[in-house]
Amino acid sequence: MSYEHVAWARRLKVKHLESFLVLDEAGTLTEAAVRMHMTQSAMSHWLADLEELVGMPLVTRGRRIQLTPAGVIMKRLAVGVLGDISRTQAELSAVAEGRSARLHIGSVWAGVARGVPQALAQFQALHPYISVTVSESPFGNLLEGLENRQLDVVVGSLDSRAYQARLEHRELFEDNVCLVVGRASRFWDTAGPVRLADLLQENWIMPPKGTLMRSQLDTALLDSGASWLLPKVETAAITTLQALVHQGDYVGVCSEAMAEYQAGLGSLRILPLDRTIRFGPVGVVWSRDHPSEAVRLFVDHITQATAAPAPGSVTAPGR
What we know:
single chain, alpha/beta, nine-stranded mixed beta sheet, two-stranded antiparallel ribbon, 12 helices, LysR_subst-bd, transcription regulation
């Protein structure tokens, strides 16, 4: 690819773009010169130099300058370049102060439903220089990401895997396993408690084997007399579960935190059971070996976000 047609850009300086934006905002060379702390002749020089580089007029002169079509294009370039420089400087400053300029968060369904969105909104409002990536996955996969440093912090079930010597954790809330249905289910309008033993022949959508939620559910099913149950679908994706329960007569399984969140939106309904299936504590986990200011700040925010119900939370139907 040849860059000869943009050779002018090699001579372009940040000062050109900065002066041009100030001139556009000020409206006159005199006012722009004052804002840039230079003489009017110096301001005129920077403008003339920029127009020479571009090869066409960028403003029309009068009592107040007006941008030409070429000037509008250059303004867009100036805003983009100076914005990138500003963001880069903020990130470099964060790195220099020992703060991470990026934060990779991994979460299970329960964290996505309760805590992570509120904490993330608070976090980014106060620390906009930190770019955030969020991934959803079973807790085991998330811990692997934490170990290989693909993730900085994980929100998930605090089972024995969270108590490793190289990990720090903080408990956020207790969660349960919930059964949910969609409008296609004959249980949609069920009000009274349903016995788990009466659901053994239903079309089940379950979490994958090896997950804590699946283990807790399997234990509860065994207690109900089901020695073995073949689910119709196994999935770790809440979007798949949501889509399926509205397409057929399915019984889905998810965390109580996620179930209450979706029920509050009207997208799912919690199937009331004759028993509680405990899921266990949900918490935030991070590496002791790779602490960062960004992780500490996010942990503080998510602890606050889960300390009380979110504003505007709705009690789930059927609960």
